[in-house]
Design a protein that fits this description.
The chain is an alpha/beta fold. The chain has 8 helices and 14 strands.
Length: about 240
């Protein structure tokens, strides 16, 4: 998961496994603004999670600076509100961005006045201004589902873009000897001794035998014998 999805900024967690689905980041300068923003956030959370869960979280965490509100209690997935005074809003954004939280929801005094929140996606760093009336469980479910599918599509596209087909052992050998990274797909008659010899010469091994095998037979790139099996070679780094 980390190798497939994360980037230079840190983790990127798929919503189905992320312990924190959204981090709410309040923005305020004065105690008056803090009270206004946190009250607005509580009202928004009631709209998403219901009064019962918001009240229960208050009892569980009391005056905690990072209270958790269960979004999916059976999977212990939560929405958190980062109320820490010792960190600036920008630091909080980066903190949760590094940890791969799928959504960050920003709320400041002007957002309260406009009746909206700012929703930021970890998938593509996009942001959206959402009226608080539209900040519902259905909206968040759709947003999280979009991130889940987007991560899969991005990883699949990257994988497919880095798989090349070759028809001869000379092509395979030249590719890996040149220090190229990626995977090579080819016909290969499964054989431990042949694979060991290929590894000794190229450092490449069979990484997997794909499910989507060709309809007809081909020629093994190493032995020259007929085979209906295609494999994917790669070098372990």
């Amino acid at each position: 998961m980390i190798m497939a999805h994360s980037d230079d900024e840190g983790l990127v967690l798929p919503p189905k496994v992320a312990p924190t689905l959204a981090a709410v980041i309040p923005i305020f300068r004065t105690d008056e603004e803090k009270e206004k923003v946190l009250s607005f956030i509580r009202t928004a959370l009631v709209g998403v999670l219901g009064e019962e869960e918001v009240a229960a979280a208050g009892k569980r965490f009391g005056a905690a600076q990072v209270p958790q509100y269960f979004y999916n209690a059976s999977a212990t997935q939560a929405i958190i509100v980062d109320q820490r005074d010792q960190m600036r809003p920008g630091e909080k954004h980066y903190f949760w961005e590094q940890r791969g939280v799928p959504l960050r929801i920003e709320v400041g005094p002007r957002d309260c006045d406009s009746g909206q929140v700012v929703v930021k996606s970890r998938l593509d760093m996009s942001k959206e201004f959402v009226p608080v009336a539209n900040l519902t469980r259905a909206y968040l479910d759709a947003k999280l589902d979009g991130i889940q599918k987007g991560l899969f599509a991005k990883a699949l596209a990257f994988r497919d873009a880095n798989i090349r087909s070759v028809g001869t052992y000379a092509e395979l050998k030249a590719f890996f000897e040149a220090g190229n990274k990626g995977f090579l797909r080819c016909h290969f008659r499964p054989d431990k001794e042949a694979e060991a010899a290929i590894k000794a010469e190229t450092k490449a091994t069979v990484r997997c035998i794909p499910f989507d095998q060709p309809a007809g037979p081909g020629t093994c790139i190493y032995s020259g014998q007929p085979t209906e099996t295609e494999v994917i070679f790669g070098v372990a780094y």
